[in-house]
Amino acid sequence: MHPHVTDIIPRLWWDGHKGAARHEGVTLDLRAAPRLGALHLVEIDFAPAMRVGQIRESAQAWREMTRAESQAAMALLQQISAAAHAAANTTPT
Question: Which of 14, 18, 78, 92 has its CA 20 to 30 A from that of 44?
Fold first, then answer.
């Protein structure tokens, strides 16, 4: 069985109750909202390969992510995958 493209592209999402961070062959189930600087995220959907980058802060509507927010989300994905690969002594895919 082949993975779906959406199963292998970088993605960070949180729906207010659950979420996941996926990058370079690593998928981490999230139990709390990801932290991007001082933002109080209620929801996020970040999939740069699909040109998706939206967040919702506390008591706010969905909005497009700024360039800085997108860079912070990508940096978080890279940190998570690097830590997982280092712990498992593997190389990124």
Answer: 92
